[in-house]
Amino acid sequence: MGNDEVNYAYAAVVIVVSVLGALVVLRYLGPLGHPLPEPPFNVSLVNVSGVGDRLYVNLTISDCLVRPSGGEVEVYLGDSLMGYGSFNATCGPNVVVFPLQPRLVGADARFVVNVSIGDRGYVLSYFERLVTAAMSLRPLNVTFEDDGEFLFLSYVSPFPLEVSASQVTYINYNTSVLVLSGCNTTRALAPAGQGTVKLQLLNCSYEDQSALRPGDVYQVRALANVTYLSPYGNVTQGVGLLGYQG
User: Fold this and answer.
1) Could you tell me which residues come within 8 angstroms of residue 44 by beta carbon, excluding any fewer than 6 positions away?
2) How many C-beta atoms lie closer than 10 Å to residue 141's C-beta?
3) CA distance linking residue 100 with residue 183, whole number of Å
4) What is the pLDDT of residues 5-54, one digit of tens each?
5) Over the stretch 210-231, which tens digit does the pLDDT of each residue have?
6) In the chain, what is the greatest distance between 2 CA atoms, to the nearest angstrom?
């Protein structure tokens, strides 16, 4: 929002002063009765980013004619409050850090910034931003071992996760011949960070290992069922997977 955004609470303070009269004027004007400058400063939201399991909100308070005395930030999805934090507001860059919640990642969140100017009121600003974080899930390969067939997935996640897959299809890409089709997998738990998950393929509706040829390229398709685990609530998503091996 920056300079073009309206500080509604400050505007509301001015209206209240003009309507309610001297008693309120004493509260919102300076000690000598001088009116507040308009606006006392500008608030802009510079960046929102998820790093690890933390959400960093970078704010800038500029053009300060009045020194800010403190600030608060609330994060909403719709009408649901997802996070709250306070900070020592200064004229210049300010950073507020929240726990990152799975529901916020990939969502357009509303940020309400309340910066106090002491006993003379506050400036309230609204911003909407897409919350991003490093998260990915992709198939690496299928292996045929003595104790069964296995699907390997690589992942990056700021949260621990549980994952399984269904509708797994494995095709010789050179010959367009099915090797495996309609498979489900076991479910596995993986820690936060990045790594590899090994899932055993089960109940395949079609299997033809004669289509395997050394040196060929293979396509892996699947639907992953992923649950991201967090103290602030778990989120389950279906993720389409497509990858190539060879």
Assistant:
1) 1, 2, 3, 5, 59, 60, 62
2) 16
3) 34
4) 444 444 334 333 333 333 333 333 444 555 554 678 999 999 999 998 99
5) 999 999 999 999 999 999 999 8
6) 91
